[in-house]
What does this fold into?
Amino acid sequence: MALRNILKEGDERLRKKSREITDFNERLWTLLTDMAETMKDGDGVGLAAPQVGILRRCVVIDVGEGLHEMVNPVILQREGDQFGAEGCLSIPGEYGMVHRPQKVTVHYQDRYGKPGQLEAEGFFAVAVCHELDHLDGVLFIDKAERMLTPEELQRE
Ligand code: NI
It folds into this structure.
């Protein structure tokens, strides 16, 4: 296991569309394990491969209910709406108010290529949408209705 360097906003790799993963090999397993470790080290709840400079479609998410690894994830269904503050390990210290679905259904593969599906609600749904956006080069600041002010941040 190893910590990976997290790219910061302004790095053009964060704006690229990531490619599908077709090889479920040791290289992918190391990447996913490193991503989980890097996410935890940064006190994040999610991390996408392009954030560590790998333009491949996989993410790790842990909103406090256990680690989820998703390879080639696709949102099949979106329901409802929620509006809340969001941040990103690639944009440290900044938070913005973003609209997201209340609930999403995601199809993905695990690290061995086995397909799975899950429903994410509330903050978990936010994390899924946020991380999947990274795979298409989209950042939360693109979608934020407004950014939080320093005063608001202090109150959080
Ligand atoms: Ni992010």
